[in-house]
Write the structure tokens for this entry.
Amino acid sequence: MKVLVADKCGFCFGVEHAIDLAQKMLAEGRNVYCLGPLIHNQQVVDRLIDQGLRVVNRLDEIPQPGENPPAQDTKRPTVLIRSHGCRPEVQQEVKERGFEIADATCVLVKRAQKLVEQLHRQGYQVVVVGDPDHPETQGVIGYAPKVTVVAREDDIKKLPPSGRLAVISQTTLSGEDFHRLVGLIARRGFEELKVVNTICRETTRRQLSAIELCRKVEVMFVLGARHSANTRELAQLCRRNGAQTYHLQNWQEFKPRYMEGKTTAGVTAGASTPDWIIREFVENLQHQ
Ligand code: SF4
């Protein structure tokens, strides 16, 4: 089987930085809690849990130093903020509870957060094009009051009828979706419409490289967690570009029927998919 791998795929620098920071702090013996899974990949998160990371959903689940019997709980907890970032009031609460903060918010997500703050100060009604349930969007909209999230065409009805509007994007959105929704917003005829494309360049590179690969193969495999936004976008993009596409988490989900009658396959992976999952998949697929 001929297997081609996308030029750009797998871990992005934001995810790598978050994992490196977690590993460094755990190696130092610090008492590290992550608010939500560190990245959208359970196997990587499980490895970090084995090294001592604890994952909580709320800050009140973290015991105060000395509150719980295990020895490590006597150390001051450190709350690790994921690359998706969080709302400013969460960081404030971490401080108020007396915990330390290790901020792994990706620099490109930070840029989007700052933009929301600035644009609001400049008098714009701020709009984020993205998934309202994604942790990055939930964090970004916390940087100004009354930010509107537009995920689909129907949401445009929620926008005010007139005024000065500023639109940014979730970092992992596809350029196609962003431009389409911005085009529809522009038709509403606002007095002023400012658009800042905050899709991250790592996402764009992965998307362009996947599109290029779609043209050369008979079937595409997109590796990554089901709930990883950028992996789902990659899979949809491959489908829209005419490739028969399977979104799988790892080799264990592969079925031989996916390759029946085919001789060339392409492999790409989302920004939270580690190299070893990609390598294992490619090696096994080559032997089909
Ligand atoms: S996908 Fe882009 S914005 Fe998100 S963590 Fe990676 S580099 Fe940062």
Q: What stands out?
A: Residues 108-199 form a domain with the Cobalt-precorrin-4 Transmethylase; domain 1 fold (CATH 3.40.1010.20). The longest helix spans residues 13-27. The CA atoms of residues 126 and 146 lie 8 Å apart. The first strand starts at residue 2 and ends at 5.
